Amino acid sequence: MKGKLITVEGIDGSGKSSLVQKLGERFKEETDKQVLLTKEPTDSWLGDSVREGLKREVDPLSEAFLFTADHIHHVRETIEPALKEGNIIISDRYSDSFYAYQGTTLQGELENPINYLTDLRKDFTIIPDITVLLDIDPETSVKRIKHDQIKFENKKFLKKVTEKYNSIANKDTNRFIRINANQEIDQITEKAFQLIKNQLDL
Ligand SMILES: Nc1ncnc2c1ncn2[C@@H]1O[C@H](COP(=O)(O)OP(=O)(O)O)[C@@H](O)[C@H]1O
Ligand SMILES: Cc1cn([C@H]2C[C@H](O)[C@@H](COP(=O)(O)OP(=O)(O)O)O2)c(=O)[nH]c1=O
């Protein structure tokens, strides 16, 4: 029995964490499968190192490898075993965050950052069965953020990340579901839930 990997993506403040919680509740109500909620950066010490890096000035290539160490750990320790068990996994961020954010921080440093980053991970990542991309204007998403802002949480940067997300999603329309995040959370949840259920035949 093979499980399903669902990922939720979008810029900071787009509503990912809220959606993951609500989707988790919906799937628990409607299926007899185990539902596992997870996230990147992870809660492990590798995730702590990533969060430490987010508070510091660090060169973007080193930072990309920190994110990648955390991702490998996440795939091996959490994703692979849960898929083997037949679980439904919902991850709050995953590799598309990496391609969109590090694709932006490495712009100008590498010739084609997204190709480089995709190639870097191709031998050990597991591609999600479906990815929900929350569409929102950075002006709106930044206003929603209540904690002290970390380095990526500014409109100019998030505009560039949005362009990267759009270009990644446009190349993989079978995997991506795009939802307008400027609606009530319950509406977003219901739309995402129905689309995922239909597409994955759950
Ligand atoms: N659909 C929505 N409409 C209005 N506010 C929202 C919505 N979804 C989330 N929020 C609020 O916006 C803030 C950021 O949401 P969160 O789910 O943490 O986003 P992310 O995980 O993408 O950073 C939180 O205060 C949350 O309550
Ligand atoms: C997983 C991942 C996150 N990030 C960034 C996005 C966020 O700005 C930051 C922390 O992620 P997160 O805690 O999910 O932030 P938020 O809840 O505000 O969306 O790390 C990357 O740059 N690359 C990655 O591969």
From TrEMBL:
Originating species: Methanonatronarchaeum thermophilum
EC number: 2.7.4.9
Membrane-traversing stretches: none
GO cellular component, one term: cytoplasm
Enzyme superclass (EC): transferase
The keyword Transferase appears for this protein: yes
Family from the record: Belongs to the thymidylate kinase family.
Annotated keywords: ATP-binding, Kinase, Nucleotide biosynthesis, Nucleotide-binding, Transferase
PANTHER family: THYMIDYLATE KINASE, UMP-CMP KINASE 2, MITOCHONDRIAL
GO MF terms, alphabetically ordered: ATP binding; dTMP kinase activity
Domain Guanylate kinase-like stretches: 3-197
Catalytic activity as recorded in UniProt: dTMP + ATP = dTDP + ADP
Record's protein name: Probable thymidylate kinase
